[in-house]
Design goal:
It is a single chain. The protein is an alpha/beta fold. Helices cover 39% and strands 17% of the residues. It is built from 12 helices and 15 strands. Strands 3-2-1-4-5-6-11 form a 7-stranded parallel beta sheet, with helices on both faces. Strands 8-15-14-13 form a 4-stranded mixed beta sheet. Strands 7-10 form a two-stranded parallel sheet. α5 links the parallel β5 and β6. The protein is globular, with a radius of gyration of 21 Å. The structure holds NADP nicotinamide-adenine-dinucleotide phosphate and guanosine-5'-diphosphate-alpha-D-mannose.
Amino acid sequence: MSKVALITGVTGQDGSYLSEFLLSKGYEVHGIIRRSSVDFRERIAHLEGQPNFHLHFGDLGDSMSLVKVVGKVKPTEIYNLAAQSHVQVSFDSPEFTADVDATGVLRVLEAVRACGLEKTCRIYQASTSELYGKVEEVPQNENTPFHPYSPYAVAKLYGFWIVKEYREAYNMFCCSGILFNHESERRGETFVTRKITLAAARIAQGLQDKLYLGNLSSLRDWGYAKDYVECMWLILQNDKPEDFVIATGVQHSVREFAYYAFKHAGIELKFEGEGMNEKGICVAGPEELVGKVLVEVSEDFYRPTDVVNLWGDPTKAKAKLGWNPSKTSFEELVKIMVESDMAKVAAEGAAQKVRMNLAEYLEKGIVK
Ligand code: NAP
Ligand code: GDD
């Protein structure tokens, strides 16, 4: 039987890599996109027009659209990646976040039941390490208690539990991947890693003076998105529907990420001071930058409640799925992202000078 995958959130970072991965495995891939006044989907533009790649309009806030697409496509696997995925934004738009990230999951499950596919369609839910939130133990595994610490995490917790409920109540093959942070050259520009690599590239090329960040001591377990999408697929190929933690097992701070990112861009930073007064000063690199403060801390990027100690234990995924969490190291990930942004910034050239730093623009609340 031919394998037919339906991906919600196909235009996002993970949706684009997962589409490529499933196409390479011979799947017929269908993606759900939202209606928009502009018709440009940067991350999947290279896939459009391929014979096995199809797009359908739909929205996680609209059950009817989901029932129509699921009924038409009759997928054998659904990957529910669509979400309002930014933690800071969830404080600004908590209701929208709950509708998409919590009730949206229920709508997908119900669409599968309404179309009579509950015995034939396997469902992957994009769950998150944010569920551990104000962490109760380190490192975190499948048995660690949850303590969500943002409107985003609370909404995702509903998604996690409703998937488990449908698995037990209706015997559906639906499961959650509890994924720790994963990044790439396609990462949204307001997430901290991409904000840093883009800024390092701009500063190195004389197009930006300084980078403002929030909590530099926050700790994350960062992996490469391209490696993580394979795991989503492996979770659905497992004999039994089970939930898995997907992580590298290695932890770094935001400060360390910034240090290595600037280093790859040819700038050596030294961090001095503490808390709001901490600064990243250029101690080696282009002559005109040496001695200058390139990284500063701004209150604008602090969250009302922040998750500061994420560190995953991927033992179960290694043992049961045969997944290799060390494919791309932290250093390689930073290098991939910086090299991509150095090339992007160079190509965009002078146009960058007039382009406001999108990350600061959004996060300072100028655009809501
Ligand atoms: P992303 O780049 O922000 O992509 C989110 C996707 O969801 C986009 O395609 C977006 O469409 C779509 N979307 C948002 N609201 C929607 C709605 N109402 N209806 C339909 N589609 C909607 O996120 P990502 O990094 O790829 O993450 C994928 C999933 O994994 C998300 O659920 C996220 O919460 C979760 N997750 C991510 C990480 C990580 O580190 N990346 C870790 C754990 C879990 P538009 O293009 O139209 O905006
Ligand atoms: N975005 C951002 N911007 N974060 C900053 C900044 C800044 O200027 N300065 C410090 N940080 C800190 C945040 O406070 C947080 O502790 C950490 O950097 C990571 O922030 P993000 O990159 O925005 O990611 P996240 O961990 O909050 O959420 C991402 O990972 C989750 C998995 O744990 C998202 O992809 C979520 O969708 C995902 O579930």
